[in-house]
Each structure stands twice: as C-alpha cells, then as structure tokens.
Amino acid sequence: MTSAVPNITPWTKSTCAYCGVGCGLEARPKSNGQLEIRGDKDHPANYGRLCSKGMALGETVIPDGRLLHPSISGVRTDWNSALDHVAKSFQETIAEHGPDSVAFYVSGQLLTEDYYVANKLMKGFIGSGNIDTNSRLCMSSSVAGHKRAFGTDTVPGCYEDLELADMIVITGSNLAWCHPVLYQRIKAVKELRPEVKVVSIDPRVTDTCEVADLHIALQPGSDVALFNGLLSHLASCQKVDEHYVQEHTEGYNRALMHALEDGCNADALAETLGVRLDDLKQFFDWFAHTEKVVTLYSQGVNQSSRGADKVNSILNCHLATGRIGKPGCGPFSLTGQPNAMGGREVGGLANTLAAHMELDNPYHHQLVSNYWQTDNLTATAGYKAIDLFDAIDRGQIKAVWIMATNPVVSLPDADKIKRALTHCPLVVVSDCIADTDTTRCADVLLPAQGWSEKSGTVTNSERRISRQRRLLPTPGEGKPDWWIMCEVAKRMGFGHAFNFLHEGEVFDEYARMTGLDYSNDQLQVNRDLDLTGLSGLSTKEYAQMPPQQWPVPQKATRIEHKRLFADGRFFTPNGKAQFVAVRYKAPASKLSNKYPLSLNSGRIRDQWHTMTRTGLSTRLGAHLPEPYISVNQTDAELYGLENGKIAALSNEWGYARIRVDVSSKVAPGQLFMPIHWTGVMASAGRVCSLVSPDTDAVSGQPEFKFTPVAIKPWHYESEALLLSPNVIDTQDLDYWVRQKVDGGYLYRVASREAPEVLEQKLKPYCQTPTAPAMHTGAAHHPSAQQVHGRHLNSRHLYYSSPSRGQYRFALINGQQLRGCYLIAPNLQNQDFDWVQPLLEEPVDDNVERSILTGVASGKLAQGKTICACKQVGKTTICNAIREQHLATIKQVSDCTGAGTGCGTCVPELQQILNEELQQILNEELQQGLNKEQTAKPQSAIKALPTTPLKHATGASLAINVGH
C-alpha cells in the first residue's frame, strides 16, 4: 500500500474574485487540476475569513464551458485574424460614422490594468467617451453622492471602523449574503461587545437581521424620507455639531429646510415609511446619542431612480454630526464587484477621466492629453450604460466591444438589450466563458483569461489595492484583457501608446498618472487618489506588492488603516464639504391595478452575478438550485399561489416563470427575486427581463429595487428531474432550469403536457438501444431479472405507473449512472436533493432503491444542502437535533460540522433548530393530550390550550425553545 504524498507546492497569495470586500486568499494547485483555497490570515480585509463562494473558488477553475479560441461569425480563427478584423472594423466604422459610433462596455470583473488600457484607448485615442461599465449598475449613485458632497469620489473610512464603532447601521444591504465576511466581522464585534447597537434597514427580513438589535422594514424607495427624518431629529434634539458644520461644511440650512419638510412630524413619517413609530424613535435616539456610528450602505440605496439623493441624505447626517474621518465613524459605501473601485479610479465610467480627474475640467483635460501624448482626448462624456444600449438599439452606435460581463442578463429591460445587440453591425465579446446570453449575440468572440490565470490589481471597498496573481496555466488560447486591447490599439495605429510588455508596466503608468501636478488647478487644490509611492516598482516589487490602502504618497513598509477627511478638509474648491438638499420622491415607476406588486431583486448566498463562475461549483448550486419568487402568505392566497408551484410574472417589459416561495420575510404587496439565472440556465428565470429601465437622473444608475409587476399561477400537468452527463436541447420544454452537478447536469422540468408525453421527450437523453430493460411495475421493487442484469455492462432500471403518472428510469454502465429521470404530476411534495450527486456515486442497492422508489435511502438521505462549505444536509441536521438532544447552534455545529465554514448558513441553521424543537415540543404536547384523553372526559380535553403546528415559510417563531 502506498501512502498519500503530501502536497508540498507553496501557497500563493491572491485576492477573491467576487464581492467588493476584497478578501485575501492563498491557493495552491491540486493533482486534479483544481485549486486548494484558504483565507489569507495576513490580509486586512478578512484576516483569514472566507465566505462559501470564496471557499469554493478552487472548484470553479475547471475546463467546463471555457471559451478556448477566437472566432468570427461562429468560425474558429487565429488571434492575428481576429485582432485584424476587430481593428479594421472599428477603424472603418469610425471613418464612416465618427468616433461616437463605437463603444466599449466593460466590467468590475476586469483588473485595474485592463480597465486603464480600455479607458485610455477609447477616451484618449479613439476620441469618444463611450466607455461605461457594469459598475454603473451597482455603485454609480455613490460616486455621484460622494462627488456632490466631498468634491471627489472618496470613501472616507476603512473596515477597522467596524470594530471601533459603537453603532453600525446597515441600510440597503443583506450583508450576511452579499458581503459575508464583513457580516462575520460585525458578528464577532457583537460577541465581544454586546452593547454595540446594530440596525438593519431593509424592506425584507434577511439573514442580516440575525445580528441586528433593530430592524427598520421601510417601504421600498423611502430611504430619503428616513434619513431626512433623522437629520430633522438631530437638529431638534440639538445633536448637530455646530462647530464642525460652521468650520467644515456649506449648505446645512437649506438641507435642513428640505429635511424638515419630509421628517419633522414623526407620526406622518412613520406612516410614509410603513414602520412602527417606536422603532423609528429608537433608531433616531440611538443615532443621536452614539458618538461612533458607521453607516454601511449598498445596492438597496444605490440601485434606485433616486439613488444619488439617498446617498446624500445619509452623508448629510454624518456631516451634521461631524462623524466622518474619525475612528469608528463614517458613511461607508460597499461596492458590489471585486474591482468596481479600481474602475472608478482609472475612469471606467463614461463621465470621468482617469486618476479621479474630470472631463469638464480644462486643466485636467490638458494634464491627461500631455501625459498620454494624444491630441484626440475626448472633452465630452459618453453614454452611460442604459443610454449606451439605447443608442445601439437606435442604430447610432454601430460597433460595441463587451468585456467580462453579460448585459443581456444583467441590464434592465433585458429583452431590449438582446434586440439591440442582435441588430448591431458589430458585436465583439471578450470572455472566458463560451456560452452566455451575450456571447450568443456576438460576431467576434475573443478568449480572455479568467480568475486564477490573469495577473494584476484590484481595489476593494476600503480603497485597498491587492494583487490578483496567476495561479494556473490558461486553457486554450486565452489572453489577458489588457493585452487583447493593446494589440487592437497597435493595429489601429496607436502602438506608441500601448507598447506594454506586461501588466506591471501598465500599473506603473497609472500610478505615475496619479501624481500629475495639480498645483495650477483652480478647481481642485489637492487630491485624494495618490499612488505615487507605488510608481517605479521593479518587476519583482510589483509581483510581491502587499495590500496597500490609498492614498500611497510614499512606499509603505507596513499595512496601514487610513481615513480621509480627519482634518475636516475636503476636495471641493473651498475645501468644505457640501450638504445636498434632497426631498423624498417615490420611485419613478408606479404601481397600478394592472401591475399591483413591487418587485425587488438581489443576490442569494452562494451565487454570484450571472453564475458563469459560481454555477460551475456543484456545492454552491445545491443550496438554492432554482430561481424563485418570495411572496407573502397574504398575496399568495390573494393570487392563488402555492408554495413550491410555479408562478408567472409579467409587466410591460417582459415576463418570467419561477418557483413560488411563500415567505413572511417579504411584506404584503412586495416580491423578491434573485438576479442570477440566465437564458442559458433557465427557460424564463431572468429577473432583468422584468426590471424597468428607469434610471437616476444624476448617476444613471437603474432602479432594480422597485418594479411594478403582476403575478399569477402557471399551471402544469407534469414535472421531471433529469440527470444527464451532457447539456440537452431544451427548446421543446415549457419550463426548465439547469444545474451543474458532479459529472454533468441536473434539469428541473415542468410541462403543460401529461406525464406520459413528457416522458417521450426526455427518454432519448437517457436511452441506449443496447441496454437490457429491468422493469418494475407500480407495486414492487427490483426483480430477480434486475439483480441478474447487474452483471451486464449496460443496463437500465425502469418504473412506471401510468395511472399515477409516475415514471422513473436510469441507464447504468457497470456501476456508473449515465442518466436518469423521475417524472410525476408533482415533485414538490418531497425532497429530491439526493438526486444531485448520482452521476458520480457508484450505483449500489441504495442508489437503485432510491431511483426506483423515488425516495432517498441510506447515505443519500441527508436532505437539502444547508451548509455549502461542509456539505451538510437538512435531514442530517434534524436527525442530529433529535437523536443527540441538541438545543443550541453551537451544539448543532459541533455535532454536524454545519456552520463551521464561512458561517453564512448559521441563520438558516437557527431557523431549522427552532422549527425542529418546536415540532418536538408539539409532538410531546400531543402525546400528553393523548394520555389525558384516556384519563379525562372529552370536555376537559377540549378546554386544554394547544400550540399551533404550522406557520408560514420563513416565519420567525414567537417562542424561544431550548434556552
């Protein structure tokens, strides 16, 4: 017997590919080609913590679905031909229609070096402002709010403030799911200092509420009214820092006047917000009387037709109290993507220049023109994201290059985006994934490197620059994004400005740019973004660069936590911060009799954006494998919806068909739907086919949190689960969702046709003419014929009950399942999560019995995955609670391992524990009733108090059990 050889490959430090927290991690290759991942304990963003997505990154670096070679019009070609074609096509379009007839649409998934080259090429040499980014969709309202208040797009605080604060306000963010590591840091603070106040402001009850002392469930879109009310309260109770306001700000009186019009009457304000008056007063009182307050805000604030005003209403409250730039204080914008901040730095938005310089500032324009040695720098802003695709749809933009993003899924009014790209004369897409909704619209496909293959820098939400490092070789012919753009630039005649040898040279040029002389600038006397201390790095120094929080005016010798505005000086012409007078306005779209419900959208715990990466991890897909719509019980009854069945959503922009999740976590009149599913992964699960194209007039950010819709049941006659090693043709299926599982794909199917008709459609995907049949009828288990058949190389199991509409089939080679399906009129009444691993499970008696009976047995019976990190199922957890008499989350975690990874499943574990203990209590009460019934008259039994046996899905229990 040979012992396992230990992995002696050294760990390489890099940065997570997901949210704006910017967690450091360490990785090393495994023998199977994947990566072993662990948190970097030295990185100041996370100190070793990772969420479920970060922990599973090593499982996503697989060849499945990769774009490997360049192609033109669907025909594989070589790089030279593809690059020549792109350059020539752009040149011809510009020559005929002008520079504003072309555009780039880029992404927060790009590295800073990629972003810099894209911005330089479009604005500096093509001469158009038509470059915008999908970061427009997540944080441009924060950019606009910062610039109006501070003079620059500056995030003043750092993550360390979370540990130092005495009150943390989390508004417009399900932090537990969307920025899990920051949530874990706050949770750790609460455990050490229980007196720290945490307030969650969100229309929904989310997992973030688990750590909150107070939940303000305000009406969607009413944030400005809330924070104007807070400003009014601060003034009325004399908690405004008058000295700070006088010395360091302007515009307070006008901002207060507007705020008083919204929020001076607490009763009226509570009614506008739809919250309890006592909760409102409690929040205002805590904020007024707590000196160290951090306000974290994210997409629930930004993604709004009033997003910039929401941001400024928050900033006004911090400026009024002087709670900014100090330890444990400040407004804190949390970005959605790993390099949304880096894109902002280098001018990735259509209305900015690189290095936080402005297009409409003549001095800045001259500085950049001189630095880039170009006489073609655009002087005007380009189209923002929504307007850009409108221009494509009108035929005004005739060539677009889309990089590392999937706008056919992620942009509002998504069907219009698809139409626009379909009619555009030239669509170039750079991506690492071959089949996305957007690549299906492309004329030219260019294979880009993915995370773990490319090298460069990203900047997180606290302004900290970290290295993403190359960990694995690139499959196929993938290239770095900056290299692809440089090669096109050279072919367009701009080679002298794009002759970079490696990404370190790109970074150096950008870092030097942040030190351009502002001394003659009358509109900006100093600057926030300064990376001159990182300029002039050697190749080795760049490769080894540790995390750095800007500004970095000189080389740092240690990790620092830097706050801006501590001296009360801002980046406005007179150095004073500006209060911005804002008033509450309802969302741009209105509810109506035709569309009476408001649709909210957002992320779920284990998925990321359009799932092109997280969708490759089988454990991440196991928790919530199907798109769903959360609806309150009241609305479910009103509209005839049943939990687990399918609903049809519609409005003037589009439609969707998704599973119903009846939940008390959303209020009556409100719905919630995840953003992640695409046309590649589901028949009609794209939320953005419904989202209105309304945008904020200042920031251009779309309204993702309030869209009027109608809902009704979508009736079907049959359902199926289909396991296949390969992607199947779904065009004849009414409803389907595809999930990546080990060894292949799991399809969830629903049909308006009868079960026997659906079986005929699915049978070809699990059939081989050489496999002997091993059939069972409706009433018995595998026969002797089946047992004998196990010795054959290829065989199949088959169960049918036409009278009940049930059909189950499996094709087996040796002990390997090659495909199976389960069909019935309804599959929602029992757990089928056990089907997911079957393609990789050796086929034994338990597997055969489970397939033929439709009920999990043996080790398959662990139930729905709850803990993605440790792969622990609900049945395992419930059994442990009963058998081991567990009464606390710690006991559950110690016994099962659930919740001991990233910890984001702990709120769900708590809910399961509560429900299971409640059920045990109900059973004991019922047993007591049964005993009483034998000893007492019936009349006495009827008089006994009873405990409800059921409650709405997701409801929190009114009774605390097991303390």
What is the secondary structure topology, with strand pairs?
Elements: E1 12-15, E2 24-29, E3 35-39, H1 52-55, E4 71-72, E5 75-76, H2 79-97, E6 102-106, H3 112-126, E7 131-133, H4 136-150, H5 160-164, E8 167-171, H6 175-178, H7 180-192, E9 197-201, E10 214-216, H8 223-236, H9 242-248, E11 249-250, H10 252-263, H11 266-273, H12 277-289, E12 293-297, H13 299-302, H14 307-321, E13 330-333, H15 340-345, H16 362-372, H17 385-394, E14 399-403, H18 407-410, H19 414-423, E15 426-431, E16 444-447, E17 456-459, E18 464-468, H20 481-494, H21 503-513, H22 539-543, E19 548-549, E20 577-578, E21 597-602, H23 618-621, E22 628-631, H24 633-639, E23 646-650, E24 655-662, E25 670-674, E26 707-713, E27 718-724, E28 735-741, E29 744-751, H25 755-762, E30 773-776, H26 784-789, E31 794-801, E32 806-813, E33 816-824, H27 845-853, E34 865-867, E35 872-873, H28 874-883, H29 889-896, H30 906-935, H31 938-942
Parallel strand pairs: 6-7, 6-14, 8-9, 8-12, 9-10, 11-20, 12-13, 14-15, 15-16, 21-25, 22-24, 30-31
Antiparallel strand pairs: 1-2, 2-3, 4-5, 4-16, 17-18, 18-19, 21-26, 22-25, 23-24, 23-26, 27-29, 27-33, 28-29, 31-32, 32-33, 34-35
Helix pairs in contact: 2-20, 3-20, 3-21, 4-14, 8-10, 8-11, 8-12, 8-14, 17-19, 28-30
